Amino acid sequence: MGVPGPCPGSAGRQPAPVPDREEVDRALARLGAEYEAIETSLLALQDHAGRRLLEGGGLSGTTKERWAAAERSITVLWSLFDTYTAALTAAQELRARRRWPSPDDLAELSELLYGSGLTVSGEAADDSSVDGQEDGPEERFSLEELVARMNGLYARSLDVIVAADAVWSTLPARIDLLSAELRRTRSLAHSVGVRPGAHPAGDDLERITDELARLRDRVIADPLAFWVSSSTGSSAPGGGRPDTGRYDRAARALEDVRREIEAVLDVRQDAERRLMQLRDVLSRADRTLTEARQARGEVLAKIAASEVPAVSGPSTALYEQLAAAAEYRRRAQWHRLSPLLESLEERAEEELHRARESLTAVTAPLAVRAELRGRLDAYKAKAARHGMAGDPLLLERYDAARRMLWSAPCDLRAAEQAVWRYQQAAAEALVPEQAEHGPEEPARDGRGEK
To answer: CA-CA distances (angstroms) from residue 325 to 260, 333, 371, 427?
Structure first.
């Protein structure tokens, strides 16, 4: 590298028009401003917090490979900047010799500012060399081409630094906060007996602890493994976002454990109330089953030719589990009591529902008999309103139905037929009477029937 000289092979090209003094001054002013911008960017890159962290060492994986390439790029970048600085200084010194430059001065300035006379070694000229490839031959560049090469190297280097710094600025802090929450949850879990090997939530806490430790070590050593490049195709350095997938999964797992611990704490606070409620539900189920057994005896004594289902006894398994729950509470084994109470509450409600269904099924024949009695009396009252109470046929059929319904055991099938025959006789007896006196609104019995 050095101050540009004549470009080999330029004799075969048509020389560019020589600029005048104003054009040269404008070009130097533009290049001077560009120089200051490049220098400022390079110094900022040199002082970037992400770069200092990367230079600290201990890297691995993708980050180690990409940072090694970025370091070579930065070295080449400063070398190219030195070449650019020397060329610009030479042009500024040449212009400063005379207030009114001669044609020869303008021609030389034109070659310095616009010509491809900047000699660059193969290491700096070839982009592949920064990735560990062999150095290529020397090349010549114009100032514009040299700036383009520096821009490319700068963007690639800054991309690595910005991405690593973004991950380091995001994930370790989050992991530390989650680890602090994990420690609080572990302390709370231990206070209610939730420990590894004794409760699934305790095992989950151990797994989350190990995962966060591994995750933090990996993030510190290989931050670029947790970087997702932007899918918009933007070429801006640092275009993308930190990949928080593993962290998010650990956070969700800890939240699940925390809710389970809170459930255990709730059990500790209202265990006695829930145990009393369980005893009350099971007691009601037992009373209902007792009532069903008594009703079954009554049905078997009063109803003939009827299928009456058997009534089971109380669930001994539920009472054994209830006794175990009470023992867990006495020993403050809240982590064991919590799932047992939830299961018992569900099964106790099922037991009460089963008892009620049993009572309903057992007393169904009595309900049928009561319905037939009501229907018979309703039709008798209807006949009386129309002056047919003394009809011999109606009296005979009413007495036959009543004897069946009020005798024990009652044959429901025969009684239902007797009630139906009475209804038919009453309906036939009422037809001539209604024809003689005109239509009348039919009376309704107790069940709303006409």
So the answer is: 18, 9, 46, 65
